[in-house]
Amino acid sequence: MRKASAAANEWNDMSTKNYLIDMDGVLVRGRTVIPEAPGFLRQLREKDARFLVLTNNPLFTPGDLSHRLRLIGLDITPDHIFSSAMATAMFLQTQKPGGSAYVIGESGLTSAIHQAGYVITDQRPDYVVLGETHSYSFEAVTRAIRLVADGARFVATNPDPAGPTEDGIVPACGAMAALIEKATGRAPFFIGKPNPFMMRSALKYLGVHSENTVMVGDRMDTDIIAGVESGLETILVLTGVTSREMVDAFPYRPTHILPSVGVISV
After folding, report:
1. Cα–Cα–Cα angle for 143, 149, 155, nearest 5°?
2. What confidence category does residue 17 fall into, taking pLDDT thresholds of 50, 70 and 90?
3. Residue 97, CB half-sphere, CA atoms under 13 Å: how many?
4. Taking a C-beta distance cutoff of 8 angstroms, is the pair 174, 131 a contact?
5. What is the C-alpha to C-alpha distance for residues 38 and 16, in angstroms, rounded to an integer?
6. Nearest to 130 by CA among 149, 114, 97, 153
7. Is 169 exposed, middle or buried (0-12, 13-18, 19+ CB in 10 A)?
8. How many Cα atoms are found within 13 Å in the side-chain-facing hemisphere of 115?
9. Of the chain's two ends, which shows fewer C-beta atoms within 10 Å, N or C?
10. From 13, 22, 48, 122, the catalytic residue
11. What confidence tier does 165 reach under pLDDT thresholds 50, 70, 90?
12. Which domains are delineated in the chain?
């Protein structure tokens, strides 16, 4: 592994001011703040850099998630948070403005869909939208299956099959989507990473262009591929899932591999 100082010199050769930043594995690990994260965010604010923290988790509104992060020591305001729920709402709005949807999810998803001008209903909706929830209801999933079978378009916030809890993993959106797909024969359109739509939506929300924006992430199979497919510069940080040795297994590469966000000089 290259020394941090060498990595820093490599990074300093690049000039940009806009950042899309994955959250888990980059800024936090579960409920623990990665030590270099507060300093990196402070740099961004001091330099007036435009940035968004991206998350595939659609459970929380930006305000709720900002509050939860502040409780563990990470100061990120709601206007700097962009979730798969927000991207899903933008997708619905562009595809069928003023439509209707049957939604399985929590306030992070339902709030975003309402704000997009959609009616949430279980009566002949245009879309079935599947997100994350604290407890999936068999009755709600059965209703979703019947609506999709009857012709409602099927959209899911993110493809993650499982999520971690203190007691072990729990089924997540991707697993429940597979159940509905198996029952109906109709595959969902996943909005969150690695779908480039998530990245383009975040760029539009931030009001910036791909040419001068960097994607910072810890996963090759979601963050980095999403950045590559969206034409962004990419930084893989080694504080999360992917190690340097794992990179060669992928046919694409990040622009930079750095020990942590603490090496990035804004």
Report:
1. 75
2. confident
3. 1
4. no
5. 20
6. 153
7. exposed
8. 14
9. N
10. 22
11. low
12. 4-56+194-263 (3.40.50.1000), 85-190 (3.40.50.1000)
| Chain centroid, CA 169 distance in Å | 19
pLDDT at 209: 94
Q: Which of 13, 24, 167, 221 is catalytic?
A: 24
- Inter-axis angle of helices 84-95 and 107-115, to 10 degrees? 30
Q: How many CB atoms lie within 10 A of CB 118?
A: 24
Distances (CA, A) of 253 to 100, 199, 231: 40, 18, 13
CB 219 within 8 A of CB 192: no
CB 226 within 8 A of CB 22: no
DSSP string, 52-86: EEEES--SS-HHHHHHHHHHTT----GGGEEEHHH
Tokens of 231: 């034409």
Torsional sign, CA 197, 202, 205, 207: negative
Of the candidates 204, 199, 239, which has an alpha carbon nearest to the alpha carbon of residue 215?
199
More confident residue, 167 or 30: 30
218 is catalytic: no
**pLDDT given at position 171:** 86
Confidence grade of residue 266 (pLDDT, cut at 50, 70, 90): confident
